[in-house]
Amino acid sequence: MAEFATSIDIDAEPGVVFDYLVTEAGLTAWMGQHAVLDARPGGGFAVDIAGHAVRGEYLEVERPHRVVVSWGVVGSADLPPGASTVEFTLVPIRHGTRVELTHADLPDAKLDGHADGWTHFLMRLRCTTREGGAGHDDWVPLEDRADHRTPS
Asked: Are 111 and 117 in contact (CB under 8 A)?
């Protein structure tokens, strides 16, 4: 199993960033087209991202500093719903918040795709908190890109 970790600094207070992780309107402003969230430990986490149904549950919700969700994809044999864990830690810094993200328990074959996705979406989170919206998103998962597929 693999783990992806990264961080990004955002010009917004932790409470503002936190709301983008726990509300449907907030989450879909930077990631996904549709979400159904119940942001409490044991509550459901469902977001549709570029045609993929990501499902899990909130494991920890500590306003405004930490959100942990289980994560997986409906129909995936190697990363089914709830199989991995995504942790967001929000650290106050002088000019806003450092978002530290760790995605653990990823199958090795899924690491590059999730690293690509998280890099893309965290930049959108930064734009959203700064400008009120990141605009249309035409991101395609690495595994769905024609130039990434290997011939059968």
From this structure: no
